[in-house]
């Protein structure tokens, strides 16, 4: 479903991704780990098409479509979802308004009728409940005044509502206590249906106790340097990124 | 508590002495003949005289500005003298050894020794006494680097092409009432030219001293930084303590050509008048710089003196990617009045400006920030950030903020913030509980308040400025 | 002096009725007024050329629209004024207050009006003086002590062509009383109006106030709202401005008693070549009062927005809390914003802050919306409008809030987003 070949990308003329290859089949969960500055977050931005992230070489296709040719919103409509590490606050735009607009844009793209206000509200309430957010939250501005945990749960709620085919979770565990982590993980796990695929970007192995990956990749200096199964994550947890060489160890310290 | 602050703020003005120096001083009054005489004494070419006369004729048509938040007895322009020079300067001493020792003494007393070996290493000084430049140090060393640093009266004769090209190019003759007056009667000041790609090897500095009674000081400074050059320049000013007000109407023009960088710092300590508002300098100054592509001009000022200040060092950001900065500390006490700030005119693309203004009001003074940020229609992606903070010491003073913001470009971003605070009882208590006396505590708090600006000053002067503030604050604690 | 002003004075002197005393005072003051040019701070960015070109004539009855636009769900006592006359009346005078039209005032009421007129409005407002001199109709509302009026009063001024209109509103809210007044104005006809309102809030009074200056095109508007706020009284005011060839609103709040507070929200949404100028002055003349003011505007096309927000803390006004924030969005290269938040402070133990920004939409927010599949154009509308929507949703009257949201959104969407 997602196929990345020899991807090179830069930010402000600085190379961050330097020849990345990744193949993801429907229903798989891939974890991407790596030291700070390895390019983990950049990958999500490049795949989603953020301004300022320049692709210099290589390709990325989602379900056979060339992602790199598409606008940000078109990629989203093709089923790519990015759960942000630091979701932005948008005062004045209510969550409800935002989510309805978003859900209906995707439905339209799939050739479905837009949801009526009542239908949408029902769905939104259910999703709210699932990630344990209070209902009045729908009336508030997007992420406005939310705690870190609420923002992360809001991202997962959006994922549930938008039913994407590929979800990229960018450090969705950072800054969460155990209870909140459980909520986020439950939300993600509930969306694993054998078809939907996930890229779980994380710095720590902890999240992977809750969301079991099929594959674990180590990203360092813009490339995947090592791949394995879930046990690779445990190895990293135990002995750090020492195997990458001294430079990484120090940068971690 | 506030009695202590009051007390900490009322120390004597240390530069208030008058020196018995024999001078040739014009009789009071202003007309075209006075301008012709100034021009003749300075041995100026015809074009310069013409330029002055045009300025004078425009000035006659103009009205003194009244929009500033200051209130003062208007100057009688016929009651002051427009030229005063120490007699000993008549023969134009060729080296420091020929300069009247009494004159050098004045500067020694002010803490500015002019003998090169005694000076702060790495600072060249032009010393202007009333209407003439007394001496300019380190000229040879600067000349080696191709840097011109000399009195403007000399530059008019020696480098007429440069002066003719740039004088009035940033502050036109008719820019405003005081600039027009200055253009007509300016007597001396400094001229600086930094050639292409040269990083000026030392700090340049001009020290202005008003000594004679009933004279006005009208200096004019012109700094041209050619492509890719760097210069840091500092001016200082003092005057004797007198019961009459004296006028200082200067013009400073900066030209930063492509990729040039000018840093202009001022420590202004003109006589502020006594605690009842008697005497003191009227400091009505026009300072402006123009930035071409990728150039940068940074103004830093520490204003503690003058009875009335009217001063807005500005940047015209004409070139793409150019940068303007304004860092200001203005302290008023007694009956001082300051209306100061800046103008950032963004014309080019990707231009950036930063304004940090710290106003401290004590006693019965009034301290106003007045600024303009203008984003022109072609200033795509231009940015401005402005922070104006006021600190009030005592309940008889005033602190005011008048920022004008104009934007004509949808991609430009302007942000202005202003806050006001006082030296709180809690802060004082904490400092005192830790063993500091009230004066030290206030000066510490004030210094902390000004830190963002002080760090922009050249190192030697940052210390100076901190001390100056401390002196000025003495007696203000309550 | 301009020809127009001389005509105003002559016309004011010609009027002969029970308000002549007030008129004479005004015409005498106007005779000494220097006609504002751009060098005068108050009119620096708003030229009065369109006014200078007019000749003075008071509007009579009009054939034009004479009823106010309907605000769904609003149950109010509503009066509309067209061409200096009452043109429509809906609902009943709420129980508990006295409501008087100037034209129907009896002698006692005339005395009350004469006594109150001009007592709140500072005398330096040129067009306020013009209103004093030429007003022919007005409303006087008196709310007795400790009376809570639940039904809002809506007063609508409809611009009618050719004539000048000078409506006056006087509201006296006695101690502990509570009332809500909606002042709105509409129309695009070639006309000039000064719509002046004065409010006295006695101790612990509460006022929920609205002023919507929705004039467009050729309808010139130079109006004002003035408030005197006594001890522990509370004022909330919501202002909306469209622009016309000349539209200017002056708002003055003066605290006369301690522990009072005012909350001012203003929105302006300008299209085409419109001009809207909002000047607010908050006089903290006594200690311990609190002001919060938020003004936000979106300026499109060739429009021009002027904002001047002054906070003046007097010598003894210790423990004042005052905050003012003005934010602007420019949608076009030909649009202009001139903003000036001012602080003038003469007391040291106060907390004052102001901020002003002119900005574009945050790239991060736009990206976020795009990653959720929302189109760029829709995302821009949501974000831009979200900027003022935040203030609309704070409006206490739900019917008014919904109506405004709908109306402003419609206006916004029709503005070209460039």
Automatic annotation (TrEMBL), chain A:
This is Fe-S cluster assembly ATP-binding protein. InterPro entries: AAA+_ATPase, ABC_transporter-like_ATP-bd, FeS-cluster_ATPase_SufC, P-loop_NTPase. Keywords: ATP-binding, Nucleotide-binding. Pfam families: ABC_tran (PF00005). The keyword NADP does not apply. The keyword Ligase does not apply. It comes from the Bacteria. One of its GO terms (molecular function) is ATP binding. It comes from Marisediminitalea aggregata. Belongs to the ABC transporter superfamily. Ycf16 family. Residues 2-246 form the ABC transporter domain. SUPFAM superfamilies: P-loop containing nucleoside triphosphate hydrolases. PANTHER family: ABC TRANSPORTER I FAMILY MEMBER 6, CHLOROPLASTIC. NCBIfam families: sufC.
TrEMBL record, chain B:
SUPFAM superfamilies: Stabilizer of iron transporter SufD (SSF101960). Residues 143-200 form the SUF system FeS cluster assembly SufBD N-terminal domain. GO terms for biological process: iron-sulfur cluster assembly. It comes from the Bacteria. Residues 208-449 form the SUF system FeS cluster assembly SufBD core domain. It holds the Pfam family SufBD_N. NCBIfam families: PRK11814.1, sufB. Belongs to the iron-sulfur cluster assembly SufBD family. This is Fe-S cluster assembly protein SufB. It comes from Marisediminitalea aggregata.
Automatic annotation (TrEMBL), chain C:
It comes from the Bacteria. Residues 163-387 form the SUF system FeS cluster assembly SufBD core domain. Pfam families: SUFBD_core. One of its GO terms (biological process) is iron-sulfur cluster assembly. InterPro entries: Fe-S_cluster_assembly_SufBD, SUF_FeS_clus_asmbl_SufBD_core, SUF_FeS_clus_asmbl_SufBD_sf, SUF_FeS_clus_asmbl_SufD. NCBIfam families: sufD. This is Fe-S cluster assembly protein SufD. It comes from Marisediminitalea aggregata.
């Amino acid at each position: 479903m997602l196929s990345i070949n020899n991807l090179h990308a830069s930010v402000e003329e600085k190379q961050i991704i330097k020849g990345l290859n990744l193949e993801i089949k429907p229903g798989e969960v891939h974890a991407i780990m790596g030291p700070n500055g390895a390019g983990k977050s950049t990958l999500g931005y490049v795949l989603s098409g953020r301004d300022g992230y320049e692709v210099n070489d290589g390709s990325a296709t989602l379900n056979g479509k060339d992602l790199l040719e598409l606008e940000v919103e078109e990629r989203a409509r093709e089923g790519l979802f990015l759960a942000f590490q630091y979701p932005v606050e948008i005062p004045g735009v209510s969550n409800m308004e935002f989510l309805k607009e978003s859900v209906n844009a995707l439905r339209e793209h799939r050739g479905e009728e837009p949801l009526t206000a009542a239908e949408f509200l029902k769905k939104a309430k259910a999703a709210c409940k699932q990630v344990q957010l209070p209902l009045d939250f729908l009336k508030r501005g997007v992420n406005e005044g939310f705690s870190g945990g609420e923002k992360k749960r809001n991202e997962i709620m959006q994922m549930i509502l938008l039913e994407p085919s590929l979800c990229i979770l960018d450090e969705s565990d950072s800054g969460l206590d155990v209870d909140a982590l459980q909520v986020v993980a439950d939300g993600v796990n509930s969306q694993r249906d054998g078809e939907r695929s996930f890229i779980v970007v994380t710095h720590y192995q902890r999240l992977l106790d809750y969301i079991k990956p099929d594959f674990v990749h180590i990203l360092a200096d813009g490339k995947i340097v090592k791949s394995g199964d879930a046990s690779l994550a445990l190895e990293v947890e135990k002995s750090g990124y020492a195997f990458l060489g001294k430079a990484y160890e120090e940068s971690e310290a | 508590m506030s009695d202590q602050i009051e007390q900490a703020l009322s120390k004597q003005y240390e530069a208030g002495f008058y020196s018995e120096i024999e001078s040739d001083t014009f009789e009071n009054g202003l007309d075209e003949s006075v301008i012709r005489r100034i021009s003749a004494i300075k041995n100026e070419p015809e074009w310069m005289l013409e330029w002055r006369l045009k300025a004078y004729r425009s000035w006659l048509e103009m009205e003194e500005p009244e929009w500033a938040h200051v209130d003062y007895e208007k100057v009688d322009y016929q009651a002051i003298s427009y030229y005063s020079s120490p007699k000993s300067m008549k023969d134009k001493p060729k080296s420091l050894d020929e300069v009247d020792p009494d004159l050098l003494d004045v500067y020694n007393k002010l803490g500015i020794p002019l003998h090169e070996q005694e000076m702060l290493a790495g600072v060249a000084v032009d010393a202007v006494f009333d209407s003439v430049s007394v001496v300019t140090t380190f000229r040879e060393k600067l000349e080696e680097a191709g840097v011109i640093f000399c009195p403007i009266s000399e530059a008019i004769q020696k480098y007429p092409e440069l002066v003719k090209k740039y004088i009035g190019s940033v502050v036109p003759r008719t820019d405003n009432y005081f600039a027009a007056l200055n253009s007509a009667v300016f007597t001396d000041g400094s001229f600086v030219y930094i050639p292409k790609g040269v990083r000026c090897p030392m700090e340049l500095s001009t020290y202005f001293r008003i000594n004679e009674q009933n004279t006005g000081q009208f200096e004019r400074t012109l700094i041209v930084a050619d492509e890719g050059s760097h210069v840091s320049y500092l001016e200082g000013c003092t005057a004797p303590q007198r019961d009459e007000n004296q006028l200082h109407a200067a013009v400073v023009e900066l030209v930063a050509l492509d990729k040039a960088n000018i840093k202009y710092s001022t420590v202004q300590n003109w006589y502020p008048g006594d605690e009842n508002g008697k005497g003191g300098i009227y400091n009505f100054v026009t300072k402006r710089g123009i930035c071409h592509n990728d150039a940068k001009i940074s103004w830093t000022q520490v204003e503690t003196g003058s009875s009335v200040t009217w001063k807005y060092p500005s940047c015209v950001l004409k070139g793409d990617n150019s940068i303007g900065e304004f860092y200001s500390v203005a302290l008023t006490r007694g009956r001082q009045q300051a209306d100061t700030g800046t103008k950032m005119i963004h014309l080019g693309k990707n231009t950036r400006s930063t304004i940090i203004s710290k106003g401290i009001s004590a006693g019965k003074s009034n301290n106003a920030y007045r600024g303009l940020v203008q984003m022109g229609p072609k200033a795509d992606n231009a940015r401005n950030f402005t922070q104006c903070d006021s600190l009030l010491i005592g309940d008889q003073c005033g602190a005011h903020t008048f920022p004008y913001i104009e934007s004509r470009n949808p991609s430009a971003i302007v942000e202005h913030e202003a806050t006001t605070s006082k030296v709180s009882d809690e802060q004082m208590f904490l400092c005192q509980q830790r063993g500091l006396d009230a004066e030290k505590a206030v000066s510490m708090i004030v210094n902390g308040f000004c830190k963002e600006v002080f760090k922009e000053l050249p190192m030697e002067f940052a210390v100076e400025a901190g001390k100056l503030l401390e002196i000025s604050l003495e007696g203000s604690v309550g | 002096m301009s020809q127009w002003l001389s005509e105003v004075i002559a016309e004011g002197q010609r009027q002969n009725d029970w308000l002549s005393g007030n008129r004479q005072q005004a015409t005498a003051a106007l005779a000494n007024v220097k006609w504002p040019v751009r060098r005068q701070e108050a009119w620096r960015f708003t030229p009065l050329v369109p006014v200078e070109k007019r000749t003075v004539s008071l509007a009579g009855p009009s054939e034009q629209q004479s009823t106010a636009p309907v605000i769904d769900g609003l149950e109010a006592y509503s009066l509309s004024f067209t061409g200096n006359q009452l043109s429509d009346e809906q609902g009943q005078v709420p129980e508990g207050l006295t409501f008087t039209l100037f034209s129907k005032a009896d002698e006692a009421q005339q005395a009350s009006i004469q006594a109150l007129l001009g007592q709140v409005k500072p005398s330096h407002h040129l067009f306020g003086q013009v209103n004093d001199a030429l007003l022919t109709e007005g409303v006087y509302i008196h709310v007795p002590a400790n009376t809570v009026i639940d039904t809002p009063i809506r007063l609508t001024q409809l611009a009618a062509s050719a004539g000048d209109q000078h409506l006056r509103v006087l509201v006296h809210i006695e101690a502990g009383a509570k009332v809500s007044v909606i002042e709105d104005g509409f129309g695009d006809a070639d006309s000039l109006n000064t719509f002046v309102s004065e409010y006295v809030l006695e101790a612990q009074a509460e006022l929920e106030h609205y002023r919507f200056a929705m004039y467009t095109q050729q309808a010139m508007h130079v109006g004002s709202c003035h408030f005197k706020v006594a001890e522990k009284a509370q004022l909330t005011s919501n202002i909306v401005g469209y622009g016309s060839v000349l539209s200017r609103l002056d708002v003055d709040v003066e605290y006369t008693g301690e522990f009072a507070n005012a909350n001012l929200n203003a929105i302006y949404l300008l299209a085409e070549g419109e001009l809207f100028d909002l000047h607010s002055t908050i006089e903290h003349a006594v200690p311990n009062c609190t002001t919060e003011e938020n003004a936000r505007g979106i300026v499109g096309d060739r429009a021009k927005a002027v904002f001047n927000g002054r906070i003046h803390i007097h010598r003894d006004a210790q423990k004042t809390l005052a905050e003012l924030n003005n934010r602007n969005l420019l949608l076009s290269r030909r649009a202009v914003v001139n903003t000036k938040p001012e602080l003038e402070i003469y007391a040291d133990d106060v907390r004052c802050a102001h901020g002003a920004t002119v900005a574009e939409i945050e790239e991060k927010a736009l990206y976020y919306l795009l990653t959720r599949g929302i189109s760029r154009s829709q995302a821009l509308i949501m974000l831009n409008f979200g900027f003022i929507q935040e203030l609309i949703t704070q409006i206490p009257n739900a019917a008014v809030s919904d109506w405004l949201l709908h109306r402003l959104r419609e206006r916004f969407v029709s503005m070209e987003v460039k």
